[in-house]
């Protein structure tokens, strides 16, 4: 079963269309104070659950995913796979100066403690982030899709710019 957080619904719908399965029914209720609650509107007991949600800032996206994981765990899902196309805080993957956090490790710990059984993500800032998890991590690379497509365009003097 595939479910989506608020900010990744378009991608989740495309994934479901490709798989030929319906997008699961999830309710995210927002309160006046900015807090929100997550509930599954169908049984997920004994099912493999895929949760599609990027964790890019603002932190509401991460919190929404954590609540989705917790609710799935409490609803007796067989397994919980977090599908995180954009793994936020990934640039904070080491101590590059004194008195700083390692944000990517903290996010890995939060996801693991919340209850994921597997992570699927893309283009991590550094491969070492996979080592922050004690669960399987499927690290996909967009270049496998984009490079052949760009090459097929046969553009002359192509320049690609990206931030560092």
Q: Can you walk me through this structure?
A:
With 164 residues, the protein is α/β, with parallel strands linked by helices. The chain has a single domain, classed as 3-Layer(aba) Sandwich (Rossmann fold), CATH 3.40.50.2020. The protein contains four helices and seven strands. It has helices spanning 9-19, 60-74, 103-114, 143-152, and strands at residues 2-4, 26-30, 36-40, 48-52, 79-84, 118-122, 137-140. The strands form two sheets. It has a five-stranded parallel beta sheet, sandwiched between helices. The protein has a two-stranded antiparallel ribbon with strand order 2-3. Strand 2 (26-30) and strand 3 form a beta hairpin. The longest helix is centred in the middle third of the chain and has 15 residues, at 60-74. It is globular, with a radius of gyration of 17 Å. The protein starts with a strand and ends in a 12-residue tail after the last helix. The model has no long low-confidence stretch (mean pLDDT 94).
| Radius of gyration, whole Å | 17 Å
Query: Structurally, how many domains make up the residues?
Result: 1
Sheet having the most strands: 5 strands, parallel
Distance between the terminal alpha carbons, to the nearest Å?
Answer: 37 Å
* Estimated helix fraction: 25-40%
Which structural class do the helices and strands define?
A: alpha/beta
Basic shape: globular
Question: Element order, helices and strands?
Answer: EHEEEHEHEEH
Number of strands: 7
Can you tell me the CATH architecture?
Answer: 3-Layer(aba) Sandwich
Uncertain runs with pLDDT below 50, 5 residues or more?
none
């Amino acid at each position: 079963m595939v479910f989506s957080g608020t900010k990744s619904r378009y991608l989740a719908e495309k994934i479901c269309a490709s798989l030929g399965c319906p997008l699961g029914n999830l309710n995210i209720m927002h309160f006046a104070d900015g807090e929100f609650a997550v509930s599954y509107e169908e049984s997920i007991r004994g099912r493999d659950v895929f949760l599609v949600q990027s964790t890019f800032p603002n932190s509401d996206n991460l919190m929404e995913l954590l609540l989705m994981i917790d609710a799935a765990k409490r609803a007796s899902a067989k397994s919980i796979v977090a599908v995180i196309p954009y793994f936020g805080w990934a640039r904070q993957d080491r101590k590059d100066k004194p008195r700083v956090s390692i944000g990517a490790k903290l996010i890995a710990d939060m996801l693991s403690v919340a209850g994921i059984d597997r992570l699927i993500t893309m283009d991590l800032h550094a491969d070492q982030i996979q080592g922050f998890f004690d669960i399987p991590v499927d690290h996909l690379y967009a270049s496998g899709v984009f490079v052949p497509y760009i090459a097929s365009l046969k553009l002359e003097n192509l320049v690609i710019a990206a931030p560092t």
